[in-house]
């Protein structure tokens, strides 16, 4: 059972926008940077967002990140069928002295 | 090319030992931590622990402390994850991943191996 809460699934139509939430506490999201990962079926996770809202080189600007208090949000605009994947938030938990990941959210592009 | 190359899939019996590997190349192996992440079938990501090959400083998630051993051989730029006595519940995909970021609170994993599938079955 993860200390970071994510909705199990979200869905939207191609071309639309979707947001995925990640809720934690002051020991993790509230006082540390958050990152987001995309895991396409059968592949390793891939970094989408780091330091709350920064995109690595090569990541589309359709992906964005934000953080407020003890929650964070991943936004995806202009949805494509290729965006269908599991999305995970991750951060450091100062109480556990460990990296923690959310339980993951499955995105379906209808 | 900067990459992490993991060893191949393993099929083991309960009680057997196992050591899987992750070879880093294309970057200064001793200047970055390398972590291990478990993904059980159909489940999410779980951080197991991490090692700094430069001085072998190793940290474990409380959930995995005492259950596995993480090590590294900097002479061959390879990190390891090992079990002394496998259980069926160790069946999972195991990823190695390299974090960037100045220190632990700022870690994010920007380089991942392709994963090693470990199956433990009698």
Contiguous runs where pLDDT drops below 50 for at least 5 residues of chain A: none
N-to-C SSE string of chain A, H for helix and E for strand: EEEEEEEEE
Please give the largest β-sheet of chain A.
6 strands, mixed
Number of strands of chain A: 9
Helix content of chain B: under 10%
Which structural category do the helix and sheet elements of chain B fall into? mainly beta
The most extensive interface between chains reads: A-B, 29 and 26 residues
Q: What is the first-to-last residue Cα distance of chain B? A: 39 Å
Low-confidence sequence ranges of chain B:
none
What is the terminal-to-terminal distance of chain A?
29 Å
Summarize the structure in words.
With 110 residues, chain A is an all-beta fold. In chain A, a hairpin with a 2-residue loop joins strand 5 (63-68) and strand 6. The radius of gyration of chain A is 13 Å and the shape is globular. In chain A, strands 1, 3, 4, 7, 8 and 9 form a 6-stranded mixed beta sheet that branches. Chain A contains no helices and 9 strands. Chain A starts with 8 loop residues before the first strand and ends with a strand. Chain B is mainly beta. In chain B, 0% of the residues lie in helices and 52% in strands. Chain B has no helices and 11 strands. In chain B, strands 2, 4, 5, 6, 9, 10 and 11 form a 7-stranded mixed beta sheet that branches. A 4-stranded antiparallel beta sheet of chain B has the order 1-3-8-7, with no helix packed on it. Chain B is globular, with a radius of gyration of 14 Å. Chain B starts with a strand and ends with a strand. Chains A and B meet through strand 3, strand 7 and strand 8 of A and strand 5, strand 9 and strand 10 of B.
Layout of SSEs?
The complex is a heterodimer of chains A (about 110) and B (about 120).
Chain A: E1 9-12, E2 18-23, E3 34-39, E4 46-49, E5 63-68, E6 71-76, E7 85-93, E8 98-101, E9 105-109
Parallel strand pairs in A: 1-9
Antiparallel strand pairs in A: 2-6, 3-4, 3-7, 5-6, 7-8, 7-9
Chain B: E1 3-6, E2 10-12, E3 18-25, E4 34-39, E5 45-52, E6 57-60, E7 69-73, E8 78-83, E9 92-100, E10 108-112, E11 116-120
Parallel strand pairs in B: 2-11
Antiparallel strand pairs in B: 1-3, 3-8, 4-5, 4-9, 5-6, 7-8, 9-10, 9-11
């Amino acid at each position: 059972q993860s200390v970071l809460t994510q909705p199990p699934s979200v869905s939207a139509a191609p071309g639309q926008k979707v947001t995925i939430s990640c809720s934690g506490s002051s020991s993790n999201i509230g006082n540390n940077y958050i990152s987001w990962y995309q895991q396409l079926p059968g592949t390793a996770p891939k970094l989408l967002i780091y330091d709350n809202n920064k995109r690595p080189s090569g990541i589309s600007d359709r992906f964005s990140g934000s953080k407020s208090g003890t929650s964070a949000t991943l936004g995806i605009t202009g949805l494509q069928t290729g965006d269908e994947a599991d999305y995970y938030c991750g951060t450091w938990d100062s109480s556990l002295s460990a990296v923690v990941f959310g339980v993951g959210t499955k995105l379906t592009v209808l | 090319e900067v990459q992490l190359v993991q060893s191949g899939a393993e099929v083991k019996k309960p009680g057997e030992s196992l050591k899987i590997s992750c070879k880093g190349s294309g970057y200064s192996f001793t200047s970055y931590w390398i972590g291990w992440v478990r993904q059980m079938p159909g489940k999410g990501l779980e951080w197991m622990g991490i090692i700094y090959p430069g001085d072998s400083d190793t940290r474990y998630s409380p959930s995995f402390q005492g259950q596995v051993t993480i090590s590294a051989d900097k002479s061959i730029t390879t990190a390891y994850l090992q079990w002394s006595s496998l259980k069926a519940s160790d069946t999972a995909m195991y990823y190695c991943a390299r974090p960037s970021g100045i220190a632990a609170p700022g870690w994010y994993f920007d380089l991942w191996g392709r994963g090693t599938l470990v199956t433990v079955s009698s």
